[in-house]
């Protein structure tokens, strides 16, 4: 089933934060009540080199760099809520990255507010604010090139008029929402936020405006979120530091002591094998002025998630998770279930490749799937194929009886990708796929025996075709066809006798 398009109206969001907005923090924010969670800014050049990998041990989807670093890790739980924020100054590259991640995230955001040199020197972040043509080109490219909402996050310009005129131009590109950090690009986080600018923007456009910048002085607890929304006239609110310090700011039931929040965070970090230095960094932000306490010192000295777990008395939890993951790893490695299907969102996947030499000439899994679908009176299998930019490889998803099937391996051609998808479907359903030397499936035989003796003429033709394919491919098994052969071969004679 297609997920509903993410709405940015009347929501509370976890803001994008480098090093903070990784999977454990995003899940924690969702637990406490955030509606939408932004990932940390990821730079387009780095992301474009990544491979999408389904991590069956962690049950995540990882985008892995050539040096094996996981640049972006996500999971099913956040798929309809996570916004992928990128740093970019290039429309083509932005689109490549957006298309790489679009099936695994709910929306794409472009960072147009980061004043840090690593961003601006490449023309990214706040540097884009002085190049509205570039902004327009990037956003238009994304809006027309992906099927999920596109948003952007800006800082305010020196005058209200300039800010309003920029956001009006941005709105025309078709973006779903715009986040406004109410500070000038030269201002530091300690400066007061300019609610009046955000208000002017909110009045000027009809798309949702997400107010940001209130953490320091305006939003200290959950109830303040609504006050900030009112003060800015915005549709929604986005929180960075308030959430980084204590993610329970999203909790409408009231704050949770930071000690418990840290523990919950650490459990996610262990469960999702978060980078230990990233885990440490986030915990130190939560410790704030307690970073020099005995606990803080232990955290700072730790080098691994195991050592951090010890500091919080979570060694048993850590051990349990390690054991669970080892069991999964062993099961995957010893090949005890090589064909085990794995859910990737709403798609059933298996790691299979289509090897032409394994099938007789003229016979393909797609043919088998089509014939089977006709026999079962199902709609014709529907194939949808994507091509990834970095190596131009193809991956196809086939829809059969409202279920989707896909091979997790990429193929060199669209035709092969479709065949691989068909194999996954046939294997999951236990139907022969036409391979040389393949034994007939008991399931198919059983289905055939269950059929009534009298079928329609159309059914006879379909059965005859299926019979022909199984004979040609060497899959013919008389026990599968006792009634049908009789029906096909002898019916005309019987009719004559009448
Ligand atoms: C640690 C940290 C990292 C940040 N990284 C990003 C980022 O990756 N992308 C972005 O657009 N803004 C980033 N920001 C800015 C925040 O998203 C936000 O605009 C700013 O902190 C103001 O919001 P606040 O008052 O709620 O903190 C970062 C802020 C912090 C504190």
TrEMBL record:
The keyword tRNA processing applies. The keyword NAD does not apply. GO terms for molecular function: flavin adenine dinucleotide binding; tRNA binding; tRNA dihydrouridine synthase activity. InterPro entries: Aldolase_TIM (IPR013785), dsRBD_dom (IPR014720), DUS-like_FMN-bd (IPR035587), DUS2_DSRM (IPR044463), tRNA-DUS-like (IPR052582), tRNA_hU_synthase_CS (IPR018517). Keywords: Flavoprotein, FMN, Oxidoreductase, RNA-binding, tRNA processing. SMART domains: DSRM. It holds the Pfam family Dus. Its cofactor is FMN. This is DRBM domain-containing protein. It comes from Sphaeramia orbicularis (orbiculate cardinalfish). The lineage of its organism: Eukaryota, Metazoa, Chordata, Craniata, Vertebrata.
């Amino acid at each position: 089933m297609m997920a509903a398009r993410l709405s940015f109206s009347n929501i509370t969001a976890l803001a994008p934060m480098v090093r903070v907005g990784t999977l454990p923090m995003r899940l924690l924010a969702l637990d406490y009540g955030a509606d939408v969670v932004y990932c940390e800014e990821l730079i387009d050049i780095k992301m474009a080199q990544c491979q999408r990998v389904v991590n069956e041990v962690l049950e995540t989807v990882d985008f892995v760099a050539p040096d094996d670093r996981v640049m972006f890790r996500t999971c099913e739980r956040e798929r309809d809520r996570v916004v992928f924020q990128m740093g970019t100054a290039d429309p083509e590259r932005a689109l490549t990255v957006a298309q790489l991640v679009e099936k695994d995230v709910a929306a794409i955001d472009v960072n147009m507010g980061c004043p840090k040199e690593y961003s601006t020197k490449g023309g990214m972040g706040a540097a884009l604010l002085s190049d509205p043509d570039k902004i327009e080109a990037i956003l238009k490219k994304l809006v027309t090139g992906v099927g999920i909402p596109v948003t952007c996050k800006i800082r305010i310009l020196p005058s209200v008029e300039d800010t309003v005129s920029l956001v009006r131009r941005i709105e025309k590109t078709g973006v779903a929402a715009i986040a406004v950090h109410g500070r000038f690009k030269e201002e530091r986080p300690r400066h007061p936020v300019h609610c009046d600018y955000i208000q002017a923007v909110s009045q000027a456009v009809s798309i949702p405006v997400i107010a940001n910048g209130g953490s320091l002085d305006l939003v200290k607890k959950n109830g303040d979120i609504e006050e900030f929304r009112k003060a800015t006239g915005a549709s929604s609110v986005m929180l960075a530091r308030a959430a980084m310090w204590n993610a329970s700011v999203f909790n409408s039931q009231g704050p949770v002591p930071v000690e418990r929040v840290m523990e919950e965070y650490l459990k996610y970090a262990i469960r999702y094998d978060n980078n230990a230095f990233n885990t440490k960094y986030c915990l130190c932000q939560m410790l704030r002025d307690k970073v020099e306490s005995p606990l803080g010192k232990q955290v700072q000295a730790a080098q691994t998630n195991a050592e951090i777990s010890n500091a919080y008395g979570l060694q048993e939890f850590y051990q349990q998770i390690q054991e669970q993951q080892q069991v999964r790893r062993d099961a995957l490695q010893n090949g005890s279930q090589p064909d085990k299907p794995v859910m990737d969102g709403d798609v059933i996947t298996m790691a299979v490749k289509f090897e032409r030499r394994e099938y007789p000439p003229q016979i393909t899994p797609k043919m088998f799937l089509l014939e089977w679908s006709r026999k079962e009176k199902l709609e014709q299998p529907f194939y949808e194929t994507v091509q990834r930019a970095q190596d131009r490889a193809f991956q196809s998803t086939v829809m059969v009886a409202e279920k989707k099937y896909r091979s997790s391996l990429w193929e060199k051609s669209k035709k092969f990708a479709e065949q691989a998808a068909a194999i996954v479907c046939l294997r999951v359903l236990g139907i022969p796929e036409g391979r040389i030397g393949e034994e007939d499936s008991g399931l198919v035989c059983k289905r055939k025996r269950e059929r009534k003796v009298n079928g329609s003429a159309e059914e006879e033709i379909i059965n005859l075709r299926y019979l022909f394919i199984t004979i040609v491919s060497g899959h013919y098994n008389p026990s599968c066809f006792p009634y049908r052969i009789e029906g096909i071969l002898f019916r005309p004679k019987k009719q004559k006798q009448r």
